[in-house]
Amino acid sequence: MTEVALYLDLVSPPCRAVYFFAKASKIPFKNNVVQLGKGEHLSEEFGKVNPLRKVPALKDGDFTMGESNAILLYLIRKFKTPDHWYPSDIQKRARVDEYLAWHVTNARPGTSKLFWLKAMTPYVTGHEVTPEKLNAALCEFKTISTTIQDVFLQDKPFLVGDEVSIADVVALADIGQTCVSGLDVFEDYPKLSAWKQRVKEAVGVELCKEAHEGVAKFRETHKQVPPEMKEKFQARLEYFSR
Length: 242
Ligand SMILES: N[C@@H](CCC(=O)N[C@@H](CS)C(=O)NCC(=O)O)C(=O)O
Fold this sequence. Notes:
By secondary structure, the chain is of the alpha+beta class. It has two domains: 4-83, Glutaredoxin; 90-241, Up-down Bundle (Glutathione S-transferase Yfyf (Class Pi), Chain A, domain 2). It has helices at 13-24, 44-49, 68-79, 90-105, 107-125, 131-153, 166-176, 190-203, 205-216, 218-221, 227-241, and strands at residues 4-8, 29-33, 57-60, 63-66. GO terms for molecular function: glutathione transferase activity.
């Protein structure tokens, strides 16, 4: 059997979600690093793996695909991972699906916005984002946190019940993006903080630390944007600054 290859940049939340899951469920895979900051996802070679030119992407023999949620499900089906990751009970499974659907239009854009304003603004423009814009993004993040805590988590150990599922790793990867802000964004969310610790323990505390290093140190490691990426990043920045 050929080894599955994953194309990842761990600065990206959907890449971390796939990475956490693959590592935690001991799926053997080849890790192909695609550095977004250097524009490696725009190469002709990567375009053959994912014409959408986004990470994560997967290659399994001649089969290739993108989209993190779909990749997670592919890995679950291919490797028949333990049931708790994507429960066969249809109502628990529906809860995972419900979270994944909500995250695409809420948690992902909200946490991306914080990252782009706090980390990408100085990288692309050479100056900090204004406090007003940062505060607006932090307010949005608070709404997301409140929803995850009060609507999805409630008083359960994990988002869909007593055991960890892919909904938890997807959520952990999203909210991990906030470590770039340098603020303790969880101080007002005790239940969410305790949940975060449980998910980290389920995935592996060291693995989580290592996987978040790129984003935590992003501002130290990304000082000068490659000239060919400037225009593209500028356009994205304008989108997130609205
Ligand atoms: N819906 C996609 C989103 C993937 C995505 O937006 N990836 C970003 C990194 S977080 C990317 O590759 N961006 C490159 C670009 O847009 O040029 C998924 O969940 O996989």
